[in-house]
Amino acid sequence: MTKKILCSMLLFVGAGLYGFGQELRDFVCLINQTYHPDIIAYMGKLKAEFEKRAMGDAAKSVDNYLKGGFGSGFIYVDSNGDNYIITNNHVVNQAYTITITFEKLDGTKLKYENLTILAVDEVTDIAILAFPPGERPFTSGFSVLNRPIREGEDVFSAGFPSLSGIPVWQFGRGMVSNASVMVPIGDDPEENIGPYIQHTAQVDPGNSGGPLLVADQQAPTGYVVAGINTLSFRSRQAANYSIQIKNVLEFAGHILSGKGSGQEEFDKRIESFLAGLSRNRAVYGHIAKYLSNECTAMNAEFALSDMLEKAPRSVQEEIITVFVRDPVSGMGEAVAWIIENSLRARSGVIRASLQDVSRQDDGSYKVNFTIQDKTIESTWVKEYNIWRIRTFGDAALDDRTQIEAKTKKREQNAGLRTDIVFAVNGGFEYLFDRGPAFFMSAWYQFVGPVFWDVQFHFAGMDYIHIETGLGFNVPIKLNSFAISPFAIVHAGFKKIPPPPNNQYITGDLAYGWSARGGLQVVIAAVPGLLFQAAYQYNSYIAMEDQIELKEGKHGVTVGIGYVF
Question: CATH says 5-256 is which class?
Answer without folding.
Answer: mainly beta
